[in-house]
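Please predict the structure of the following assembly.
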Amino acid sequence: MILHIDCNTFYASCEVSLRPDLRGKPVVVANCNEAGGGIILALTKEAKAIGLKRGDPVFKVTKLLNDNNVAVFPANLPKYVDISRRLMQVVRDMELVLNFQQYSVDEFFGELPIEDKEQLHDTALKIKHHIEQCTGIPVSCGISLTYTLAKVATRYAKNVKGYKGACVLPKDKIEVALAKVDIADVWGIGRRTAPKLQSRGISTALDFFNASEAYVRRLLNINGVRTWRELHGIPSIDISNPERQQSICHSRTFTYMTSDFATLESYISDYAVAVARKLRAQHSVCLAVSTFLSTNPFRDDLDQYSNFATTKLNVATADSREICGAAIDALNGIYKPNLQYKKAGVILSEITSDESIQLSLFQDSSQKAKSEKLMAAIDSLTDKYGMDSVKLATQGFSKPEMNLTNFQPSLNQTTNINDIITVK
DNA sequence: TCTGGGGTCCTAGGACCC
DNA sequence: TCTGGGGTCCTAGGACCC
């Protein structure tokens, strides 16, 4: 049977687990920009109870946050990734779950070689309690025949008190369970497909289950068929990760809109340097660099535009200078003056290992060695003295500081010795 | 004033090959 | 009356996920 583990309100739970004084209180994690607010990414049930929702822009709910003394944290991804890694290890050490894999920062799948329903439920509860004891992160567990059904079971575990946070969905209960699940809540049915199905009278997961495979194939694509099969208990999805990432992206929404090319160039340079660094950290090189730009979609009074362009490189590289040059070339291709830009980003693709680079006919291999040395030096300087210690000239010098006045301090209790919590 | 960031996969159509 | 049949590769766009 497939086991699915889902962390409850993960980012918020991470902060609460390291700030026990906030237990039972409204806590929110939001990403943040220079102006001091983005959108709410995660929130505790106490925060939901006062009317906050995931996705709310912070500026729109400032009053609600202040009136209710909500603790607001800036998203600290490295910390959540570290806690996620610990959780993974805790479960592996129990040696109860086979083929235990991470699906996302807050979700895991594995297999339980058990048939008895009661025993499955007991095992899931045991795992759940052990995770909570070792990491402080509350989780929900779902068990069923396939990934998609296990996720359905996890929904029940989360929403129905009687399950105590772990739900087993056996073969003979599938249809009963699916009858109460909205089609839009099925894993793999997104915001486009749900209305399409609803308009054809398919409003619950059971309606979808009862449609014929041929009908689903005609209406949707192969992914729709996979979801349909999964609901019928036939494993049809592969969640194993590719060896190497296929693309690496860095993008930001600006606090203010700009139409100035030099400003965009400096942002694009920052993002290019950031992706190049991520690329080197994975011991990889890339052959394609794309830049994208867009205006503010919330301002329907302004002209809208978004576009992207790709520069292909002759030789695969991880050199910040080449990647930055390629990103700016692409920017030149799509930039239009007199528009108010709000967002931009750089994407690397055609990524391969840095161990086997095909040199071009005219390239001197000593250039490659020089580049690698320089990049290694820059990486060690930035590790030690921060991202601003060495820069490309196109990155520019003055960037606005983050305004974090409305946030709780973002500590790295699990990765920085100076931030470790004190136990009295 | 202010609205996120980072990924994967599939399909249709065009260009090309014999 | 009647105009083939079988491939590959690339790209843009659209869907999905967290």
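Chain A has three domains: 1-169+401-424, 170-241, 248-391. Residues 1-169+401-424 of chain A form a domain with the Alpha-Beta Plaits fold (CATH 3.30.70.270).
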